[in-house]
Amino acid sequence: MTLAQGRRSSLVALLALGLSALAGAGTASAHSAAGASGGARVVERVSAREMVQTRQRYFGAANVDPSTGAVRRDRVILSWVGVSGFAAAIRGHVLLLDAWVPRGAHSGYVPSSPVELARLRPELIFVGHAHFDHAADATPLAAATGATLIGSAEQCAELQSRAAAVPPRCSAVIAGGAEPGTAARVGAIRGVDVRAVKHLHSAVTRPGGDPTGFHVPVTPLPSTTSLEHPPTPEDLLHIVGHLPDSEAGSVLYRFAFGDFSLVWHDTSGPLVDRSPRTFDALRALRPVDVQVGAIQGFNQVTNGMRDPRMYVEALAPGLLVPQHHDDWAFGITTKGEAYRAPLAAELARIPAARRPPVRFIADPRDYVRPELLTFPVRIDLPRIARRCTRGGRLRVRLGGDLADVRGATVRLGRERARRLGRGVATFRRSAVRRQRGRQIRIRIADFDGSARTLRGRVPRCR
Ligand SMILES: [Zn+2]
Ligand SMILES: [Zn+2]
Predict the structure, then answer these.
(1) Nearest ligand (C-alpha, residue 329)
(2) Ligand 1 centre and the CA of 131: distance in Å?
(3) Strand runs (DSSP E) across 99-239, as ranges?
(4) How many Cα atoms occupy the beta-carbon half-sphere of 310 within 13 Å?
């Protein structure tokens, strides 16, 4: 064995050992009472001004209303806060995807904090799985903000068990004991079609299972980040307390509205070896515009980037954003840049016509940079639809995507305004004749408190 080989194999062993120790003895989903200390209060009170300023930083000043803090609805905006965690604005709804700001291996490396995430006033916290590097801040953040946790039944039980006092709300979208490949609709966000798929956590499997050939282990050298940003005693205690947090199963999510869909998954399991049927569930989520997926995992020591590539092939996204490759653990992770070449080599196994472009984000420079991950979405905005019906009557309808509309009234010229029940109103012939050529005005009130008026002309109906 050469010196280089010796160093490589010892690194492999160290990586495997370190990752499994850090992740609480591999992928077992046994319930863990240890480490259930996440009840510390994150924040006392958030002022409206703090909320607006924090949202402006995480979602871009141009996308946030400076007086109300409302975020533009025709956007999907993601702000990376480390590992697989993102602050997200989807159709104006503020969410967290996973909830942990990396600390403990270092301090002050990620320009974010649980206090700041609480200031965003998220409505929901989507949990991919419950290991500490994904969910150590989930329970205290839910308790502090009133946000509802979203996950599988096992994840809800695990996260609620970590509460110091009253357990936070958790919506179990995948039933307990469900097989990998189980899919469900999640009705959590108004106007957004959310799907959840139970899949598998990354795990070491025997080399192979890949028609494109064998893999070189991916074992980048550890970095010096912990020396450059040494951890505070408080952060060390935090991470030590959460090391045994259990996985409680893994869930992938797809969010779709207008002409856009996003898939996010915080681990990539060896589906080809252990659950090929889950690929069918992933294929059923197409079309996918953007996949934000974990590329680091246990299997990189034997199967390289095989599993992340197979997720890409199943989802067939228009764009891939890799994550979980940043420097979040003691001595065993390294800076994300080290994954650029191995990922590119792996994706080269996909025929060029089907290979997605990559928007490669890397730590620390791309933390909290919403401008890198802002995606415009075309929504079919509410509009006036008019139709003359029998007997010279006029049917006025509110067309388009009405998910944001709480209520509407319609007014024909000088007629008295009427409520637009179910988005439709019919006017008699006499009213239509009297008001011909005048304006139809539909006043719309949205769920977020905003209002606007649509205008059209009263037509001639015979
Ligand atoms: Zn994990
Ligand atoms: Zn992880």
Answers:
(1) 2
(2) 5
(3) 124-126, 148-152, 170-174, 183-186, 193-199
(4) 27
Q: Which two tokens stand for residue 376?
A: 């415009």
- As given in the structure block, the two tokens for residue 323 are 């994550």
Joined together, the tokens standing for residue 268 give 């990539």
* 26 burial type by CB count under 10 A (0-12 exposed, 13-18 middle, 19+ buried): middle
Strands 170-174 and 183-186: unpaired
- Topology of domain 383-457 in CATH is Immunoglobulin-like (2.60.40)
Contact 240, 228 (CB under 8 A): no
For residues 379 and 73, what is the distance between their CA atoms, to the nearest angstrom? 9
Tens digit of pLDDT at every position of the chain (462 positions) = 333 333 333 333 333 334 333 333 333 332 222 223 334 456 567 899 999 999 999 999 999 999 999 999 999 999 999 999 999 999 999 999 999 999 999 999 999 999 999 999 999 999 999 999 999 999 999 999 999 999 999 999 999 999 988 999 999 999 999 999 999 999 999 999 999 999 999 999 999 999 998 898 898 888 999 999 999 999 999 999 999 999 999 999 999 999 999 999 999 999 999 999 999 999 999 999 999 999 999 999 999 999 999 999 999 999 999 999 999 998 789 999 999 999 999 999 999 999 999 999 999 999 999 999 999 999 999 999 999 999 999 999 999 999 999 999 999 999 999 998 778 999 999 999 999 999 999 999 999 888 999 999 999 998
Query: What's the CA-to-centroid distance between 2 and ligand 2, angstroms?
Result: 32
- Angle of helix 153-161 relative to helix 138-145, nearest 10 degrees, comes to 80
Q: Which amino acid is at 15?
A: L
**Centroid of ligand 2 to alpha carbon of 220 (angstroms):** 17
- Ligand (nearest to CA of 328): 2
Predicted structure pTM score: 0.89
Closest ligand to 201 CA? Answer: 1
Three-state DSSP state, 213: coil
DSSP annotation of 319 = E
Q: How close is the Cα of 16 to the center of ligand 2, in Å?
A: 13
Q: Looking at residue 283, what DSSP letter applies? A: H
Distance 95 CA to ligand 2 centre (A): 19
| Class of the CATH domain delimited by 3-376 | alpha beta
> What is the distance in A from the centroid of ligand 1 to the CA of 298?
9
Q: What angle do CA 231, 234, 236 make, to 5 degrees?
A: 50
Domain layout of the chain by residue ranges? 3-376, 383-457
Which residues have beta carbons under 5 A from ligand 2 (an ion)? 133
Q: How far, in Å, is the centroid of ligand 2 from the Cα of 267?
A: 6
* Token pair in block for residue 356: 């997605």
**Measured CA distances, 123 to 126, 143, 148, 174, 261 (Å):** 10, 12, 7, 20, 20
